[in-house]
Each structure stands twice: as C-alpha cells, then as structure tokens.
Fold each of these.
Amino acid sequence: MSKCYDVVIIGAGPAGINAGATLAEMGLQVVLLDEQQSLGGQIYRNISHASAELLADMGAEYQRGRELVARFEQSGAGHEPGATVWHVEADGHVYYSKEGTSHQLKANYVLVATGAMERPVPFPGWNLPGVMGAGAVNNLAKEAGLVPDCEVALVGSGPLLLLEASLLIKKGVRISTILETTPKLPPLTAVAKLPPALKRMDFLTKGLKMVSEIKRSGAEHYKGVTKIKALGKERVETVEAYSDSEQLHFPAGLLLTHFGVIPNTHIFRLIGCHLEWNQEQRYWFPKADQWGRTNFEKIFAAGDGAGVRGALAAEYRGELAALELARCLGVIPTYERDLLARPIREAILHDHHPRPFVDAVYAPLFSKETLDKDTVLCRCEQVRVQDVRKAVQEGVRDVNEVKIVTRCGMGPCQGRMCGPALAEVMAAELSAPPERMGTLTVRPPLKPIPLEEVATMELEGSAAQPADLFKNQSK
Amino acid sequence: MFKQVDTQDLETVEVVVDGEPRKLQAGISVMAALLADGELNSRLSPTSGKPCGPHCLMGVCFECLMEIDGIQRQACTTEIEKEMVINRHLSETGENSHE
C-alpha cells in the first residue's frame, strides 16, 4: 500500500522547506522529498553541516538557510533525503527511488519546488573535462570544502558569475580572466528600470563592492566578448574569445561557465502543466495563479522552478503556496489566508525592486552568430549545431521532430542540457521566436532507474501494474 | 585541480575505484570525493568515446554517470559509502562502452 499525505513537496530548497514547515506547523501531514542528503537545495546546500569558515565566507544570505532548516526540523514535517522523484501524476501520485527501492506516495496536493538550473549555453569545447558550471564549483565549496588549486577562467553573464569570481578571489584562487558576454553598455531597457532598483541601495552597493573587489584582484576582466572557445586535448587548457576584433587567449586549468539561471521545468512538463514563455529571460515557466496553483488542481509550483526570482522570493512563495494549500485542506479560512499572506506579499515586493533592472542588464542574447556550427549541442548524443540546422533546412519545425531526426535530446539527461539551446538554434535558423519551436516532451522515468526497481514496487490506484506507468506515452 | 580547505577531522572511507582500492573523503558525493582525490574524468562518452568530466554537479547534466555498485548512477547525487565499487570504464573502447 502507498502512503497518503496531505501534501507531498518535491525539492528541499527555500521554497520547499518553508512550505513544509508552514504546513506541518498547522498539523498537516507533509513529506519533503529531495535528491540531496541534507536540506537546503542548491542555495543553502549542506547548511546544517557547514563549518564556521564556510558560513563566514558565504555571508549572511547563506546563513539565513540555518534558521529555515531549524524551523523545518522543529515543525514535524517528514523529510526523505536521497529520494529521486521519477514520476508524478496529475492525480497526486508520486513515485521516487531511494537506496535502490522505488516507492509510490499518494498526496492530496503536490507542491513542486524543483528550483532552477544554470542556463546551458553550448560553445566549442564546452564538453571538455574541466569546463564546469560556476554553480558546480560553488557546490563543491559548500558540500565538500573544495576550492580550485589551479588557474581559473570564468565566462558567461549574470550577477552569479561575478559573485562566484569574488568568492574565489576571497579564497585566494588565481583567476586568469573573467570574460563576460554582457554588453559593455547596459541596454536602454535597463536604464528605464533603474529607478525602482534605487529603492534597494543596499543591494546595489553590494554589487558595486563585488565589482571593485574583482578589479582590485587584478583579474583581467572583459565585457561584450564573443566567440568563446574552450581548447585542450584531454581536458580544458586554455580559453579563447574576441573582444571587438582583438583575440583573447588565457590559461584555464578550470573554465567556469555561467549564463544565468532558468527554471527546472521537467516535472511540470511531465505532468502536462501549461507553460508560459518569459520573453526577456528566454525561458519557460509553469503557468500558475498568485498562490502557485497550476492548471491542475492538485499540482502547485513554488520557488525558482516557477520563475526565477531568487532565494528570498522562493522562501516567500513557498509560504504563500502553503497558505492556500492549508485553506484547500480546510485548516484555515479564506480571510486568515489573506491576512497571513499580506506581509509576505509586501516582503516579495520589497525583495523584487532591483530585479527588473538586473534582469535587463544581464538579459540573455542569442543570434545566429552565437552558436558556431561545429559546437556539440547535445552532449549525450554528440549532436552538433550543424546537424540541427540541416534538419531545419529540410523542413523540420518542432523540437520533438528534430529530436527524432537527429537524436538531439534523446540521451540520459533527457534534453536538460540541450533543450533550451536547441530551440534557439532552430529559431535563429528560421528567424522565428524560440517559443514557437515547442518544448521537448518529457516522459517517465524523469531519471534512469533499473527496471527491476519498477517491477518490484508496490502499487495501488491508477497504476495497478508497473507497466501501466509507461503506457500511452505518445501524445 | 581542487584542494581541501577544511582539513581538520576529515574522515575517509575505503572504496574500490576502477578495480583499485582507494581511500576517499567521507560524507560527500562520489563525484566530489573523486575530484578531491585529483580525478577529473567521470566516464567515456558512449557516443564519442572521449573522456567526460562532471559539468553541473547538481544532478542535471548526467556527465558524471558511472557504474556504482553495479548500477549506472549520477555520481554527484550519490553519497559515497564504505566498500562501494565504482567503475568508470575509462579504458574501454567501442562496443564495450556503448551500453
């Protein structure tokens, strides 16, 4: 028999933790499923076991996670660490794998708080060993206390790229260069969005301090670079790029990439939630009401997975979703929900002031020239940009058709790494908007699991037989 | 390529990596433990045959997929445990690596 919960929450970042704590404090039966061993998500990774030195290095933003985790642990909410969710049904069934065994849960409501991932932007050599996400190295510091002990180059765009650079400088890591694809001058759209950002001088001052720290470190810093290439035989050795017509060439024992973050929408797409396109940030996010309810009554979305707004906003949005879920479950009346939500909405607004400006400054840029024809687009299946262009020239118009023709997105990552860029390549080729290219279809299992695990799972409800879980997968 | 900054009270576990017994840092993911011990390669790409290294370290990219106790698992989301048998199949070529 499967266990039944009021709410199953997927993802133990700020949104999931806060929602779980809020619901459990109201006496509801809640379980939080998460792939990691400890609470915190990516932003507060390993916060419960962080050393004093790490806490000091990562600053007040990271430390905030400690209070959040402490509150969750006292709330009585359940937590399943090391749990990989591989299927979710709109009727509230959730399937996950833990320590080699798969389990089925039944929930009245499912809150999907799967957070964000770094935007994968392919360039020549990005699949060489030693080319890593800036977030990857940030995670290594938090989880394992590891820092690079070689010369590091950073490429990409966005505040988190500069934040990672400043963290590395603080740790004494040598940085050969920071190559930003961000234009030298901010776009006009950003200037218009500056006034609301000025309400948060604390935020802007911090950003300026970060930039001055980078400057003081003596790291070569370029903006508006193009044609990034990672070079090396067995692993990355150097990075090449262009600043105007000047060719740049720097050593890179590790090359860290970061091109902003996008919502992790795989579960929403699997369930069949309606998605919306963020024109400026060029990403998909689930369509949801002000409480996070998707087009499915039982499926809620919160945190960066529902649209990227940062850790604080994720925490608040987790709480808003929890308030509405508590109302749906009959624990609080509507007026109480609204009363409790008011200060949270004010906090969200306060937190949001600088974001439109920052988003506009670092808005992702894509053009036909962005992607070199020989670039490996799909790392799993080694499909190159030119293979996709050829398929488009032959008349293919949808990402799923390209997938069938070229195998792009058919590997174990299920298009997580190539999907967004695939749509961009096709759109650029057709001079059409990328949202017209569709999204790759996501099917269970969300992550590869042994068939044996599925076959031996105890099941009830709509999927009485394990094989039913994978039936009728074609649209 | 990576160094440990908090070297105080580091615990280790004994595991088998590619057939050789090895002591790796405990309490972290398999991939982090390998990186801490100077390893950058996670597998050979089954499509190109070239070595791969971890890229995202948050469960997205599947570049750190390796055989752990007989099952293909993401090394970045799998916590290292004592007596684990980890196989990266780095010296295999052609059909053998095409699984």
Amino acid sequence: MSLVQMTATAEPATADKKQRKSGLGRYTRPALGLLLPLALAAGWEAVVHFHLASGRLVPPPSVIYATFAELAATGELQRNALATLARVAAGFGLGVVAGTFLGALTGYSGFMFRLLDPTLQALRAIPSIAWIPLFILWLGIFETSKVVLIAVGVFFPVYLGVTGAVASVDRKIVEVGRLFRLSGVGMVRRILLPAVLPSYVIALRSGLGLGWMFVVAAEFMGASEGLGFLLVDGQQLGKPAQIVAAIVAFAVIGKLTDWLIVLITAPFLRWEDRVRTDTVED
Amino acid sequence: MLTLDHVGKTYPNGVRALDGITLDVKPGEIVAIVGGSGCGKSTLLRAISGLDTPSQGRILIDGEPVTQPHEKIGMIFQEPRLLPWLTVAENVAFGMEHLPRRQRAARAAAALARVGLSEKANAWPRELSGGQAQRVAIARALVPQPEVLLLDEPFSALDAFTRADLQDHLLDLWADLRPILILVTHDVDEAVVLADRIMVMRPQPGRIYEEITSELPRPRDRQSAAFDFVKRRVLAALDRSLAKPATVDDTQTTSSQGAALWW
C-alpha cells in the first residue's frame, strides 16, 4: 500500500467561493441594494423641489439632512444617541448574561428545563411593554426601569436561542469529547461552546434587535434625553424632520451595533459550512 | 490484553442486547465482529469503549476494569465525527491537550503525514472528501497510541474503491504499533481481509455464535482461493446464526439465499 495511492482520492471543490468574491461583483452587488432607497429619496426631493407637494409633513432628504447636521453641530444628536446607546448597552448586557446563564442551565439539564422553562415561557407570552407600568412603580421613572425593560426584551430571544442550541448539540460530537476523557469544563469549552456559537450569534443579534425596539418604548415612557426623546419632542413640537432624523440615527446605530456582533464573532465562525457565503457580511 | 468476562447488557426496557460475551484478545490481534442487524455488535463495541456500561460482567484492559472511556482505548465511528470548528491538524491534535503546544503540533503533523494528508493540515473538515475525513479520524484515534482501537463499521459509508484503499491503509498503520483492533462490520470481505479472528454473533440476546480463525498470510489477496474459502466459512456461519434453532443443520455449508440476505 503506497501513499501515492492514498492521495489519489477525490479532491472536493473549494475554488468556486473565491471566484465568486473577485472582480466587479464585489462592488456592484452591495451597491444594488442602495438603488431603491436612493431612487425614492431623489424622487421625493424632486417632487418637493418642483412644488408638487409641500413636504411639510414628509420632509425631503435635504431638509432631513439639514436637521441632522444642525442637531449634530449643537451636539444634541451625540448627547441623545449616547444616552440611548448607554441604555441599550446596559440592558443588552444584563439580558444576555441572564439569558445565557438560564439558557445554558435549561439546555444542559433536563431537570432544570422542566423546572424553569414553563415559567419562563409563560412570562415570555406577556407582551413586554405590559411591564412598563409595573416597572415604573417598582423602579421609578429614571434609568433603572428603562434598563430593566430593555433587559427583559433582550432576555427571551437569547434564552430561547441558547437553550435550544445547547440541547441540540450533536450527541455524536459529545461522544468524541467523552472518548478523549474531557472534564466537565473541557467539555463545555472545547465541545459545547464552539458547537452552540453559530446559534448564539443569531440569538444575540435578535436580542439586540429587540433591545433597540424596547429602548424606544422605554424612552416614550418619559425621558429627558435619548433618541426616543427626540421622537416625542419632534411630535409635540411639530418637527417631522427631527423625527425622521432620529429614526435615521436609530437605523444607523442599530445596523452598526449588529454589524459589530457579526464582525467580532466572524473569526470564530469561519469553519461554518454555509450554503451562501455572501450572507456573512449582510 | 483485552478481556471480556461474561459481558451482558440489558436495557431499562428489559431488552437483552448482549448476553454472556466472553473473549480474550491478545496484544496485536485483529478481531472482526459480524452478525445480523440488531445482534448487539455496536452495543458490544460501545461497552468496550466505556461510552456505555455493561449491566453484567466485566471488561478488563491489562487487568484494569473499563467503566468509562479509557486512555488505552480509542474508537473510530462510521462517520468521521471530526469537530467542524477545528482545522484538520487541530482535529488530529484534539486528544493531546495535555502536551505542550509544539510537541502537539509535531505529533499531529507526523500523524497527518502518515495518513497522506499533510497538505490538508489547515483545511476545514468540510473541505475533505468522505475518505479523507475518515483518514483524519483514524489519525486522531491513533495519535494517542491506544492499545485497543475499536472500529464501528468504519468504512461502510464509503464507496467500494475507497473502502478497499482504506482497509489496506489501516493495516499499514496498524503495523506501526500493532494495537488490538476490534472491528464491527457488515462487510464479510472486510472482515476476512483484516481479521485474525472473526466472531459471528447471533441476535436476541446478542451472543457469540461462532468463532472463525483466519491464518491467511498478509497482505491478503482478495482473489485467492484461500481467501474465498474463509469467506465462505464466515458466510455459512452467518447463515446458520440466523436460522431458527430447530432448523439448524451444522453440516450444511452454504446457502446462497442466506448469504444474500443475512444482513
């Protein structure tokens, strides 16, 4: 038996992925997604510019941009965005820690699952906004109640993702760990964590999305600063451009933070066997 | 030395999967276990590996009882079971966490070279063909230098050409350190090519029905008359093992229908 014979077995195809990334496609494909919003914006701008509509309630892009620039110049935008970001960060952190811990616990132990999961699922069925009056009574109208509300919103998708992922780790892979006599810690670190990471990232991203949703609800219930405050303020003072500017800020920061999660975790997920390689950086 | 002493396995639902399996395997011996489906072949292998515990009897390796996975026992499954988040080289090095990094890398590289996959060291498992992945699994199992290597239908998911290739390759690797090989297989050819002893099991409860020793010289010629003779003996034993007790006729050697249907 020679090695030459051994190496003669089939080589799988890996070249096509590289090919798809090269050339013009790399720049034109992302640009394609910009076509529709840009066309709509330019169209509305033209409509207002030629006085076909007043644009008072639906401000054209130029007015929104001017408002945005003005808010940024006075430092209003940064101050409010930072306040919102801080709330989301605190709530997200709390929600992720709690969701990960309880999710791992119920995913790993069937007993804990039967003990805790029904209660948690029942709590999940409550629309989280319904907690607001209670949280205000319990925790006051300031930061604590807002952060807790966001944490509640983040908790459930993270919990669901983690418990499902841990419970469905492939028994066959776990057996490999057992054969190599991994300790409990070793099993978690070398088998369970890497195995659940792809679903964990998805859980974190959906948790963060809900975090951004709940921060608006939290800021609606009374805040003196924050992007949500800009929304309420814009409504009460009849400044639609400020509302849209705040919405745009939400979109940008939300997208950036989501992208940050993807960026940070991407190096750990390079091994994934994806159907579409182009969804990684969306 | 691997000893099975009246090993039995009864599942909680009362099904007796194994009963009174007694077997001594000398160092360097290759034992194949064949038998109809549900005769407990894989259950037996999992008990030896320590992944499952037998309900009766004892399994000893060099006099030490095996109650959980043991450092002297390695195992290869039907699927390669490579960890998808580790590169090929990291997969091979998986069982050597206790060694310093450099030594680990050197041993993994040597093992990969031995299975002819050095150029795949930094590839992900998903980039390998089935045969390549199984060779990586073999390298991973052999790198801690086990005294016993268990193989649970290791090549059954591969095409015939790759399978024959890997059987030869396995023997080649075995010759380095001569561990005990215990091979569960559905493939009579595979058993005859590899094994010194072929244990034919019969189901309900799983027990050893017949033992066939094969002293064919290695490398074995799959086309030779002697090979064919051993193969016929195994097929005949399988045939008898599946027959109803009342109709067992030990003088009859082959039945073409049984040979085709035994699995």
Amino acid sequence: MIMNNDKDVLRDVWFGRIPSCFTLNSDEVTEREAEPYYLMLPRVSYLTLVTDKVKKHFLKAMRTDEVEEMWFEYEGTPLKWHYPIGVLFDLHASASALPWSIIVHFKSFPDRDLLHCPTNSVIEAHFMSSIKEADVLKHKSQVVNDMQKKDHKQLWMGLQNDKFDQFWAMNRKLMEYSTEEGGFRYIPFRIYQTTGDKPFIQKLFRPVSPQGNPHTLCDLLKEMYPAALTNDGEQKRYQVLIHGIEPLLETPLQWLSEHLSHPDNFLHICIVPVPTD
Amino acid sequence: MIVIGSESRGSVPNTSPNVRDMAQVSCCQLDEEEFRKCCLQLLQRSEELRDGWSWQQPQGSEDGYLKKTTLRCVSVTSKRSKKNQQDSALLIDSDCRQNQSAHVSAAPEEATDDADDEDVADDADVPACSACESSFLQFEYHVVFSCSYSSPVLYFRAFTLEGRSLTLEEVWSSIHPNFRLHLQENPLNAVSQQEHPLLGQPFFLLHPCRTEEFMKPLLQMAQQHHRSVNYVLSWLSIIGPVVGLHVPLQYFSTVCVKDPASSSNPG
C-alpha cells in the first residue's frame, strides 16, 4: 500500500546519517598518538556493523597484545550495539552538539551491560530475530515463514551493504496487509526511556480501535506512557522522537509502522526530556 | 481480547494471501494473565518442595518473572586462552550433579569482593564433586513472558565462582551433545545472547519461536482427556533440561489438586 510520494519518506529514513567523531579511550595503551576518526553513521544500521574502519584506524596505534573486544561509550554510558544507531543517538545524545562524540574501548568489556558481538553473523542473527518477532506480531509470522532462505539473506545483505532497493524489494512483503483489516494484527513497537532498569516498553497494540478508527501515535502513548503527553496548560516535558524528528501525535500508527520502522521492522520510539538550554 | 474480523468467508482480498488465517485463535497460546496463574501455582508447589523459585518484580515495573539460582557442578576441560593466561576458558563436558538446595546470592560480584571469606566458606559446604577436573558454576534462570510469542521464554546466565560470566561458547559446551546437535541446526531456534527485556542486561535464551510447535500436541492431548495443564510447568519440564534445569516429578503429582489460594502472589 505504499503511495509513490511516501516512497521518499522511506528513502529519507534509510539514508539518515549522524556525523560522529570517534576518539580512543585515554586509558588504552598506545604506541603512538591516535587521531580522532570521523564518520557519517547510518541511523538504521548497527554500530558494530559500520565501524570496521574505526577499528582498523585505532588498531594501528595500539599494541596488539592490549587489544580485546571493541566497544563504545558515550558520556559514561556503554552503547548497546544491538539497538539501531539512530535510537542510541536520539536516546542518549539528541540534545548534544554535533558531531556525536563516541569513545572507543579495547579492554574491560562491560559484559554486565553489553552483548558480545564477535562476528557479523551475531548481528545478522539479532537482526533476523527482530524481523521474525515483528512478523509474529504483524502476520502471525506467516510472511517471514513463507520466505526462502535467500529472501532472508536479501534483507540482511540490503542492510549490510546499504542497498535501499535490494532491501525494500523484499521488505515490502513484510509491510503488506489486507485492506479489510485496515492494518497489521499488532504494531511492532518499542518505547525507550533512559530512566529505570527496564530498557523499553513493548506490549500488544492494534492499529485500529474496536470501533474501526485508526489508532494514532497519541493513542499509543496514552496507553503505554501517558507521562510523555502534555496536558492543556502544562509545559511540555518530553520529546517523542522517531528518527530524530517529532512526528505529529495525530499520525496514524499504521502509517508510522509502514514508513518509519527501522529495517528490523520495529517502530522505535524514544522519549527524552525537553532539552534545557 | 478483540479479534479483528477476517472471518468473512471466501472473499478475502488477494492483496496479501499470507495473512488470510491470521485471526484464527489458537488454543495453544498463553496470555499474560494465564502466565501469572501458572507461575503462582508453580511458586506454591516450589515453596513446599523448597527448590528455590521466586517471583521478581523490577522496581517501577508491573511486569515480573520467575527466578531460580542453582549451583551446578560441571566437569571441565580447561583450555588456556592464548591472550590471557589468567582467563582460562571452560569447556564443559557434562553435568555431574545439580545441587538443588544451594541458595546462592544473585550478585556474583560478591564472590570477588575482598570481604567474601564467608561466602567462600558457605560454598565449601556444598558437596564436593568426585571428578577431579570439575568446577561449580552458578546458573541463574529466569522465566519471562513474551507478548509477541504469547509464550514463556527461558533466559539464563552463568558465572564461575570467581564471578566471571560464561561465554556463549562455554554455554554451548555445557549443553548435552544430544541437544546440542539438534539445536545447532538452526541458529535462530537455538541459544543466543540477548538483552533481558525487564533488566536490560545480557542473558542467554532459548529462542521461543518454536514453542507453539512442541506445546500444541501436549495441550491438545490434555484437552481431549479433559486434564488441566499448567502451561509454564509443562513447558519448563520440556525445555529446562536442555540447559540443566530440571523440574522434579513431584511438581506434577499434586499440582492439579492444590488449592490455589495462598500467600505468595505474583500479581
């Protein structure tokens, strides 16, 4: 059901970039000084998938026997590679100045906070597992199960090699639904906030109300995170960010799910305090 | 529960043939309320059997999960890693014994604190293993409800007594070879490391996407014989042994007759 003009939205989402500056953690033992490394990070990808060059750059300055698994930190927070890059930025750094300043570590891997990521196949498994879960919610996993192995591979290769057309040629199947239904079975979404242990809110939510009205972003927040909404006469306390923008709260959730979901097929929503200048 | 109607027969639009049957309601799925009921039953029985299950609720969250911590004695072949002589990798052959009464503090850092002499002494009370190349590992099991899969999910992590987390490779080696071969055929259906949905920390899990497949025959059979089934207990008895978690038979001898009204309420 994707209209032609909406295709631009998909492109804009896919090609979203965050200018970033990587610096080596000052405790690392180096043989010579390591210059910072600048990179345009794709919002919809994963940190460990797009930082081969960063690793290579810093390894040149390191003593090889001091090198363990690479990990990233922003202002004291270890960055979870298994969240899309755009989510990490919106959640932790949306109020800070660009470029996004990320610290690179090669020792003391915080295995209480971060998943290990020894190879790209771990990222692939994580990505496919998200797509699968999203399709369980959308179509009782019938679409993803009807796909062949090479179709799954096409989704992954599309993301890995930043090939928009290759990815969407397959992904559009995951976005289908019958006109009669008016949307997916449930909307795959996650709402992130930085307070508390619980990393995100994820529950069952339908795109259409029992009376047949399309649910909006506002309806979702009302049920899942009412504090994020501003009541009349109140000052706005929170921003609701998807891909770095604040979509209108009246936007139908089904449309958001089809157009602003990440390649993993989840709609990732970040709730962050309004920046105080 | 609201089921959006796709029941109008014969005239399903052909735009998406894949979603034709999606509104069909299955008898084999678990909702959150039923999950809690099952957990409550399990906890009552566990209290009698004193095998250490508890209900945990993270601060500020309505959701909770079942938790159990045990010490497992596993025989180990040490493989010194080249990079770090201190950090020997454990290659675990098999379980030699499961210590079912060991209640170990959940925080493994304690074992590395300086003031942990008492903890070590406690651990020494645990029966020693006969095999010479064996060591104790602390396993922590969590049963969490997944609304996507409408099923329970088994999360777990494991530590050495020094507090080092086991790697995925070591966890694989702790799984009985019979299970291992089967699980490794399809990585997506097997053991992987993922974020605990309530704690935000890395855990291993057995992927839930095949759960319905093996629970269906069991539940249908029970339905035919008008027997009530505790979904969580039955599921756990199937999936638990893969990662060394055993559900004693006593759970099933009386669980149907028990009066469900009791103190330890998971809700």
Amino acid sequence: MQVNKKLIAQRSAVIFLGVMLFFTFSSRTILYYMTPKVTAARPESGYITTTYSFGNVRTYSEDSFELKLHFRLNQGIYISEVLVGKGSTVREGDPLIIFDKRSCDDLLDAKRRELDAVLIELSEFEKGFADRIAQLENEIESCSKEIAKLDASIEENYVNDAQLVEIQHEINAAQADYETAEKKHGELLELYESGAVPKSEVDESGTNLARLKDRIQLAQERYNRVQKQLLEQGLKQRDELAKRKEAARSDLKYMQDTGIYNGKTWVSIMKRVDEIKGQELELESTVGTYTLTAPFDGVVTEINAEKGMMYYGMDTLVTIRPYDAKTVLLVPLADGQEEIFKENTDCEIEYEEEKIRGKIAGFRKHEGRMHMVLEPVVEAGAELGRGSESGLETGSNTRSGSVSDSGAGAGNGAGSGTEDEAGEGRSRHESSPFAGIRDGSYIRINIKSEFIRTIVPNSAFVSQDKVYVLKQRMGFWGEEYYVVERQVMTGTGNEYVTQITEGLSPDETVVTGWDRKISSGMRVMLPLK
Amino acid sequence: MAPGAAVVTRVIRYALIVILAAVFFFPVAATITNSFMTVTEIGERYASGNQDIQAFVQTGEGENTQVGKIVKKSVSLIPLRITLSQYYTVLIEEYKYLNMFWNSVKLSAGITVLHVFIAIITAYVFAKVEFRGRDIIFFIYIVVMMMPFQVTLLPNYILVRSLNLLDTYYSILLPGIFAPFGVFLMRQFMKYIPDEMIEAAVLESDSVKDLFITVIIPMAKPGIIALTVLTFAENWNMVEQPLIYLSDALKHPLSLALNSIIKSNNAIAFAGSVIYMMPIIILFLYFEEYIIQGLENSKL
C-alpha cells in the first residue's frame, strides 16, 4: 500500500510538473492561436448619405387647374373627340374636348326641367306655408273663444243651462204644489178638529203632502247631479281646448322660427334652386358650346378622357398647368415615416439613370395618405423662365420626351395644329426637372445628413444598439487588448455606416470585425487588417 | 470486555473516523470538482452578498417560499456542466498565475534547501558540541521561535530595508533560511544520535563532511525529510512576507495571488487552488512515513 501511494505521488509529481512546464513554455503560443483576432477602427466624423427608395411617386403642380363638372350627372355626356394629350401645350380658348351635341342638349333640357320643377315646388311651399300659418292662427283664436265661454259657464255653475233651468222649473212647480197642499192640509186639520171631515181625509192629505215633499227632494238631487256632470264636462272640454290651443301655438312658433313646412324650408328649396341654376349655367358654359376649352395658356398635365367615353361629372377631365407653375414631386410615405425626414433638407433624386437635385419642401396629405413634397433645386443660370411668346424653353431632361410622346399619343384624332402645339408643349414641359418622372414611377432619394461627429461602420454592431469597444491594458507580456461591450444610441445611418449619438466618444476604438465569437472582457489581438 | 461490546466500540470508532475523514476531505473534493465548473455557475453559486435572496423575495409571493435561487447559492460537488475554462484562464490566458507558481516554487524550494542545510549544521552544534553559553543561546532560539511572526516582522523589515534588499527575493529568503524552528527540530532529533557512533565516525575520518554524510544525515534522515516537508509547506503558504517585502507584482508567489483571486475573481479561484495545493499533497503522499517517523523521533 505504501509503495502504491509513493508511486502515485511520484507519477502525480511528474505529471504535475510536466503540465506546469508545458504550459509555462507553450502558453503564449497557445494563447496566440486561441485569442480572437479582430479589426478595429476609430469612429469617423463627416456626413452620412442615406438612400431611401420609394415607388408610386407622382408629379404635382400647385397652380394646376382641373377642368371638370363639379357635380354628378344623372345622365352622362358622350365625348366625341379629345383634341389634346398629356404634355400638350394649349392657349386660352383652345378646344380640348368636344362633346356630343345631342347628349349635351338632352342634359341641358333635363337640367332646365329640374329647375322648373324646383321653382314649382318653391311656389307650392310658399302658399302651403302661409295657409298653414293662417290655419293655426284661426285655431288658436277659436280655442281662446271657446275657453272663455266655458270659463263663464263654469263660473256661474251652469245655472243657465237648459237642463238645469228645466229641472229648476220642475222644483219650483213642485214647491208651489207643496205649498198649496200644505195650506189645504191645514184647513182639513182644522175641519177635522171641528169634526167636519173624517180622519181619513186628513190622512190622505198628509200622504199627498209627503209625496210632494219627496218629489221636491228628488228634483233637487237630480239638479245637483246634472250640475256636477256639466261642471266636469266643462272642465274637461276646457283642458282639451287649452291643449289644442297650446299645440297650435307651438306649431305656429316652430314654423315661424324655423321656416320648416312639410320637412322643407324656403332656404333649402332656394338653395336647390340656386344650385340647379349654377349647374345650368356651368353646363351652358361648357357643354352648352359642346366644347371644353382651355381657360389659360398652359400645358396639359393630365387627361382622363377618351373618345367614346361617357362622362358623368365630378371626375377631372383635363388638368392644365400654367407655363410657369412650380412642379413638385409627391412621394407617398408609410405610417410615421414623415418623422424621419426634415423639411428643407437637400436631397438628390435618382430616377432611372438621372440624378436631380431637390429639397424636401414639406409634407401634405394627398388622397388620404401622407406624402413628402420634393421641390427641384434649380442651378443658378438654369432658372426657368415664364413661358415666352414662342413658348420654347430648352431643358436638360432628356427623358421628358418619352412622356410627352405618350401624351401626344393620347390626343388621338387631334388636328395637325394641335399636334404642333403638343410638340411645343413638349419643349415647355421638358423645362421642369421633375417633368420626366412618370406618375407611379420608382425613385431613390439620397439625403446627406448634417455633420456628424461619430460614425462607425455597421459591421461594428453586435446587435442593434451594442458595439464592442477596444481597450488596452498592461498584461504579463506587455500591452494587450480586450473588448468591452458598450450600449450606444444610434442616429441616422445607411447600409454601410451608422451615426452614434450617445455612448461612444470619438477617441475610442470600436471593433469592426472578428474571426470568432467574442464577449465582453475577452482578450483580443489585432492582426486582422 | 465482552466480544459484542468490542464490535460495537469498533463500529462507533470507524463511523467516527469516516465522518471526520468526510468532513476534512469535503473542502478538498469541492475545490477539485468546482474547478471544472463554468464561470457562470460559480458566479451563481458563490456570489457574494444576498442579492439572490433579495431578488427572490421581491419576486416571490410569500415570505417563506424560498426556492430557486436560494438553492443554487450552495456548495455543490457536481458541476452542472464540466469545463476546463478555469484551467484555460489560469494556465494559458493569465500567464501571471503560472509566473506566480514558479515564484512560489523558487522561494519555497530555495528557503527549504538552505534552511535544512543551516538547520542540520546548527542543530548538530547545539546537540553534540559542548561550548560555553550553548544552552543560553539555544534558549534564545527557543524564545524567538515561540514569538509570533508579527513580532519579528518589523525588525526584519527594518533590517531588510537597511540592507537594500526590499523588493528582492533575498528579503524573503534570508529570514526564512535562519528560522529557528528547523534548528530546534533537528537538535531534538540529533540529541538522540548515540555519541559512540559519532566518535567511531571521527576515528574513521577527521572530515566533518564525512561525519555528516556517513552518520548524521543517515541517522537524521526522517527528521530532515520531515523538516523539509514542513518548511516547504510553511513557505508555500506564506502571505505576509511577500505582501510586505515585495511590491513588484511579478515577484509575488501564488499564495498571495490566490488570496486576492478569491476576493476579486472567484471564477478561477478553484482551478488556482487545485494547482496551488497539488505540490503539498504530492509531497505529503510521498514523504508521509518519514514525516510521521521524524516527528515521532524528535519527541515533540
């Protein structure tokens, strides 16, 4: 046992010393291979250009004029000809669209009939309203009279009422009979006491007297009963009349205050009259001439009509932009995206192969969706002038031609003069930097940030808000590097770099690449370049 | 004594021995097994303070529902996941611990060898050479030995400083070499070497060297080995001397580093402790019989 213990001790000593010596001489080499190699960089300062991609953009002009009927038509107008296309240049009074004569006449006739009907309705309303007012006034008056009459009767307890008078007469007659019978009975009693008449006559007279007394009492009771009934009826009638009078007065006041009769007012009918008159005038000025004409000199930017189409109003037929109108680009934004962008920020708009300088002019809601408004920034010397007499203004945007071409194509059937003008319009249209951008196109917007002090490569981020900071310390073999995880707040960024707003100072070094997983506090080396 | 009573006594005795052995062996076993634990597990089990308990109390529904983290915060012999990460740190990543290990080896071995050499010669003089004032000088030795280490610390420091030996290994080596305990132990041992044997050896050869090689050292071998192991162990464990005399951290022995590891970085303390205790365990295993014999023969 002792030998075994010694042997174990011996072997343990050899192994232990061997291990210690091995690691003493080789630990540095092992450490070299085991230590993660990293790349690191100091944060840079400068600008970050961020690129945003947007689809479905459209151009828009503030001064554009939309030609359309501003009300819905019950019967459509047939479009016979469309004389212009998108991009066509037009002058004031130029015909744009020709409507079918018959459908225009029908529409005008219908509108006139509609006006007549409303005017009749107005006169009927006026008459009915006055009649009703008079009726209510009469009712109030008659009710008042009746109530006064009833009040008088009630006050004298209906004593002059025919029924009561008749009963009273009965009572009076019965009382007169009673007095006569009483007198006769007194005489009979005297006679009986003198023995002139038998007792039976006296008894008969007494019975007759009692009968007459009962008759008077019954008549009096009937009188009281009838009087009570009359009073009750009178009070009830009076209440009913008072209610009727109050209702009539209330109706009268309501009508006088609101002017409503049969659910209509004079104002509402007059409004309809004015509306229909306005529509009639609008129709007479547009379809009345069977031609839609340009209201001023400009360029057709949008046309939603084509030959053979039925037009039912409200929808824009043609949009015309004045020559000197400012065209902006409307960029649809996702929810909350407007917070990313700042107004008056310069940007570069990439459309196909072209780059256009612009700036964010603001934000506006358009068709229920938030849009970013981009304005072109025109270089000095390339300022766009108002359309000259010739209307020719050369621009550098070469793509506009294709748009104008398609616009001209839309104006099929136009005369040669119109074609020429459309060609002129192309030249004018080309002058806007945004003119070449087709509605619904896809663009990229490059926005250069303000000067940023701390920018790090995206590769430095371990997670969304964490980086490794490279630190130096004195190790056994000299200076050595280690990493410390740091939570930072990020600002703007693009696919390559990100701004650090908080958590990192410009004189610190961040780890930008590593050849294996690293963790906070881990020793690292810097051979990676 | 009846046979039955003897059996019961023996059972009780063995049970007591087993229990005591388990109690004494548990820290060693825990140190070894925990050296294979992950840093995370060590952090969870041996984190200082009672943060886990507080965290539990905050999240628990009742005051007495102490489960979960409170259970984790206990000593365990079995790691949840076995890893060599602690050894990687101690042996490869942090070279300073290896350096400290060799510092310990240098200091302990140097002091041991020289101290044993000095102790043998001095002890022989005190044991076998008659001269005037011998017993008084030896008494002074005994008095110095009996004094606590802290009493001699300041005079030693002043002496070392006056000799310009601060921050050198000599500041540790010199006080260690001339420590009185070895002299006392060896004197006790040599006192019982028969004078006749020494006289016979002197008759054979006038050389002191031959005397020591042929008689003294073989006769005092168990004592020398015991002294060697005890001196090595004592100096292997020294903390105060390097802390006071050595300001250069590169010269610190592992004993001093281990003291600070436990306070600051307990994640590698177990692996450091295993490496630290290995030499002592090996020495004890190898020289166990000599140590026992030597201590018995010295009549201490």
